[in-house]
Design goal:
mainly alpha
Length: about 220
């Protein structure tokens, strides 16, 4: 059995596949954090946890929208062999949306609905684990040659991408992050340090102290 793919290419460079798999790492990482937080809910952190759910669902929904509108159609046009895989993955996206809506309702009423929120998280993990693994195994090898992240066209996009990369990078090995910086436009790099500091402060409020991650794959450190 093959293990999870490396975030970096075989030659040690980063690519668009690296960037997307870091998002996968972020989804897996946060779902585990939600499990632990809901299992021993700290009422003092309820507002922060509720806010973090909104951020998580924003990232997940936006990720799938970007795949459905851009990544998947482009791959299907270039590689006809992946059409059936893309069809299955797109069907998964349609199954995820109702779960996110259930999550909105459950997290909005915390702490009374902690069991409902935990149920949503479990179902998301059950659906996303094979979904993300399929993307990584069957689609992302075709993205390894793409080594330039597009320059954001507006200030709002710069902020959006900076926040997204800050979220995805936490827990990833520093040498991987350094290679990712090499494919990013300077306007985004200039914003990343502040974005990463802000995200770390946010994590401290939501999750409390965290170990420094060193993963080089889309699977978070245990």
């Amino acid at each position: 059995m093959y293990g999870p793919p490396n975030l970096l290419n075989d030659d040690g460079t980063a690519s668009i596949a690296t960037a997307i798999m870091m998002s996968h790492h972020g989804f897996r990482r946060d779902l585990v954090r939600f499990v632990h937080a809901l299992d021993r809910l700290d009422v003092a952190r309820t507002d922060a946890l509720r806010s973090e759910w909104r951020s998580f669902r924003f990232h997940l929904h936006g990720h799938h929208e970007a795949e459905d509108s851009g990544v998947f159609p482009n791959l299907a046009a270039q590689q006809s062999s992946v059409a059936a895989t893309i069809e299955r993955l797109s069907a998964d996206h349609r199954r995820i949306d109702p779960l996110l809506e259930r999550g909105d309702r459950a997290f909005a009423e915390l702490p009374a609905t902690a069991d409902d929120a935990a149920s949503v998280i479990r179902e998301l993990r059950t659906l996303l684990d094979p979904h993300l693994a399929t993307e990584e195994a069957e689609l992302f090898p075709y993205l390894r040659s793409a080594k330039e992240f597009p320059t954001p066209s507006t200030g709002a996009e710069v902020e959006l991408y900076a926040e997204g990369f800050a979220w995805a990078m936490q827990g990833v090995a520093q040498d991987v992050i350094e290679r990712v910086y090499e494919i990013l436009p300077q306007i985004l790099i200039d914003r990343l340090a502040a974005a990463r500091d802000a995200f770390q402060a946010r994590c401290d409020r939501v999750w409390g102290p965290l170990a420094i991650g060193t993963t080089r794959t889309p699977i978070p450190d245990a």
